[in-house]
Amino acid sequence: MEINVVRDVLEESNARAQENRKLFDQHGIFAVNIMSSPGSGKTTLLQKTIPLLQERRLSCAVIEGDITSTLDSERLKPLGIPVVQANTEPFGGDCHVGSHMVQGALKYLDLEKISILFIENIGNLVCPAEFYLGEDRKVVVLSLTEGEDKPVKYPLMFRECHLCLLSKMDLAPHLEVDQSLLNENLRKINGQLEIIPISSKTGDGLSLWIDWLLKQRKK
Amino acid sequence: MKVSDKPVWHLLFQRYCLLMHELYIAESILNSVLDLLPAGITPERVTKVHLSVGQLDAVVSESLIFLFDAIKGTKGLPHAQLAIETIAVLCQCKTCAHQFNLDLPIFICPQCNGSDVILLQGRGISIYRIEAKDD
Ligand SMILES: Nc1nc2c(ncn2[C@@H]2O[C@H](COP(=O)(O)OP(=O)(O)O)[C@@H](O)[C@H]2O)c(=O)[nH]1
Ligand SMILES: [Mg+2]
Ligand SMILES: [Zn+2]
Q1: Has residue B6 got a pLDDT over 70?
Q2: Quick one: which of B122, B100, B102 has its CA closest to B111?
Q3: How many domains is chain A partitioned into structurally?
Q4: Residue A131 has pLDDT above 50, yes or no
Q5: pLDDT tens digits, one per residue of A116-125
Q6: DSSP states of A117-186
Q7: Binning pLDDT at 50, 70 and 90, where does residue B11 land?
């Protein structure tokens, strides 16, 4: 016998994401899902970004999803903001932060006190792109050392994101990156994608990134 | 994500799953099938699960089938086979309304060269048919 159905396999995952979304709305939280390959500079970016937001009296919190231990959480501790480690596998079994992990992490945060919530996803350009967490915006960090072809190799990630931060721009003089080819490849995948070149090391471009965040938050 | 506590899984996780959402998807498929089965049809009777997968979803069919087969027994669906149909990416240009399929991931309108292109098809994973043995 045949049973004809239509069932989105990620229905359960999306339902949890919608619950997260509801909480963000209830508490006026702007949530940003930050994704990249391992080592592109997500944690460093947060270390530099959060003080700039604190200067503007915006309270931040971070859900840290990066695998292997709580190293990234430790790096964020000096900022004096709430950081919750998402409950991922200690030996690195997870490939993405799931909406249920965000839901679990939200229980440890005083939502009323948060204006901007960053979710640092697991370093991986494939899996995290697939899953909606309830966030307002998706941001991909692509460092200059990763090669011009990455957008074309991981189309879903660059299709899904609203903003691409081109990181480690301070390294440009030492590399032979064809930046116009990189921009062209980004445009091929997503003509609506905004692109901001930054360096967390020198601080270049960070004010544009902050402006972007503040503008998107108002939308 | 935990499927079972057997040590072999930890090995599998570390060897293959660091970059694989397919395991999560395989588990979600099996849970959905259990949820969709009408009363009176036991899970053991399920012989085939038809799945459509958007080409943009970057699901590796071989991996998904491998993982599906590896865990289906633990979910009580030992005879279920997974059949995957890939849905090509279909786009529409917002500038000139032209519709086109993508062979390569290049979201540029072949008619007007515009890059404001929306996705009509080719994203999403759904179960569309379940086959079960008659009594
Ligand atoms: N030169 C340079 N190095 C950076 C920059 N941002 C991050 N890094 C370095 O890149 C490495 C990985 O950064 P991290 O923030 O841990 O990346 P994550 O894995 O994406 O969180 C670290 O050694 C950082 O110091 C940058 O803007 N310029
Ligand atoms: Mg990190
Ligand atoms: Zn067109």
Answers
A1: no
A2: B100
A3: 1
A4: yes
A5: 999 999 888 9
A6: EEEE--S-SSGGGG---S-SEEEEEEEGGG-TTHHHHSHHHHHH-SEEEEE-GGGGGGS---HHHHHHHH
A7: very low
On whether the CB atoms of residues B82 and B68 are closer than 8 A, the answer is: yes
Tally of domains in chain B:
1
| Contact B58/A at CB under 8 A | yes
What is the tens place of the pLDDT at every residue in A72-114? 778 888 899 999 988 665 555 567 888 999 999 999 999 999 9
pLDDT of residue A219: 84
Domain of A85, CATH number, reads 3.40.50.300
CB contact under 8 A, A3 and B37: yes
Report yes or no on B75 lying in a domain: yes
Is B2 within the bounds of a domain?
no
Residues listed for chain A: 219
Beta-carbon separation of B32 and A11 below 8 A: yes
Chain segment A1-34, per-residue pLDDT in tens: 999 999 999 999 999 999 999 999 999 999 999 9
Question: Mutate which of A35, A44, A50 to test ligand 1's pocket (most atoms within 8 Å of Cβ)?
Answer: A44
Could you tell me the residue range of the domain that residue A114 belongs to?
Answer: 5-218
For residue B29, being part of any structural domain is answered with yes
Residue B124 lies in a domain: yes
Nearest CA in chain B to A91: B14
* A1 chain-B contacts, CB cut-off 8 A: 41, 131-134
Lowest-confidence range among A137-146, A157-166, B10-19, B49-58? B10-19
> What CATH number did the domain enclosing B108 receive?
3.30.2320.80
Under 8 Å between Cβ of A9 and B68? no
Give the domain range for residue B38: 8-132
Confirm or reject contact between B1 and chain A (CB < 8 A): yes
Which residue in A46, A35, A64, A39 sits closest to A154, CA to CA? Answer: A35
Q: Which residue, judged by its Cα, is nearest atom 1 of ligand 1?
A: A168
